[in-house]
């Protein structure tokens, strides 16, 4: 039988793990920017594991990432990714990477009640300190499996 302190420790560990890798499954990301035909400029498939691995299929490019989700002191969520490998093929914009991009990339997440995420640059603050997001949001992702 577990002691009360063991149960508390396991509960805290569970919360950290759930917050670190809360996404599992396949998502479709698309840009807010649209082509003249009304289709997104870019659409990608993002596959997340519950263990911190993420594969991105963008055009002909396939990128393997490590990921985690962090919460800041205000409870905001950030998707933190770090590239592990790329096949250096043209992405959904037709651009070809020159290899693995070093370092972590942080993206601000707004998660709706429907489960769709809006991906944005860092939020700002008004003169009175009120937090605001936008117009730096560049796309959204929704689960497809």
Describe this structure in words.
- This protein has 145 residues and is mainly beta.
- The chain has a single domain, classed as Beta Barrel (Lipocalin), CATH 2.40.128.
- The chain is built from 1 helix and 10 strands; from the N terminus they run H-E-E-E-E-E-E-E-E-E-E.
- The chain has one helix spanning 4-20, and strands at residues 25-31, 43-48, 53-58, 61-71, 77-86, 104-111, 117-120, 124-125, 131-132, 139-143.
- The longest helix has 17 residues, at 4-20.
- The model is unreliable at 1-18 (pLDDT under 50).
Helix content: 10-25%
| Beta-strand percent range | 35-45%
SS elements, strand count: 10
Measured on Cα atoms, how large is the radius of gyration? 18 Å
Q: What form results from the Cα inertia axes? A: globular
Mean pLDDT: 84
- Uncertain segments of ≥5 residues (pLDDT<50)? 1-18
Structural class: mainly beta
């Amino acid at each position: 039988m577990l002691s009360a302190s063991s149960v508390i420790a396991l509960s805290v560990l569970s919360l950290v793990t759930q917050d670190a890798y809360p996404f599992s499954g396949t998502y479709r990301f698309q840009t807010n920017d649209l082509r003249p035909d009304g289709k997104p400029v870019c659409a990608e498939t993002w596959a997340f594991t519950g263990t911190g691995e993420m594969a991105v299929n963008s055009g002909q490019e396939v990128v393997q990432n490590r990921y985690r989700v962090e919460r800041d002191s205000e409870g905001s969520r950030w998707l933190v990714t770090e590239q592990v490998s790329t096949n250096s093929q043209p992405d959904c914009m037709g651009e070809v990477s020159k290899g693995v991009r070093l370092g972590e990339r942080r993206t601000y997440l707004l998660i709706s009640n429907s489960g769709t995420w809006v991906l944005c640059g860092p939020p700002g603050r008004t003169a009175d300190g009120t937090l605001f997001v936008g117009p730096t949001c560049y796309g959204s992702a929704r689960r497809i499996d």
